[in-house]
Amino acid sequence: MAAKPTIQMSSASVPLVHEVEVMDELGRLKTTYIPGERPLTIYLDKREVVTLMTLGSAPEALVLGYLRNQHLVESPDDIQSIQVDWETDSAAVKTRRSTVDIEALTSSG
Question: One GO molecular-function annotation for this sequence (predicted)?
Answer without folding.
Answer: sulfurtransferase activity
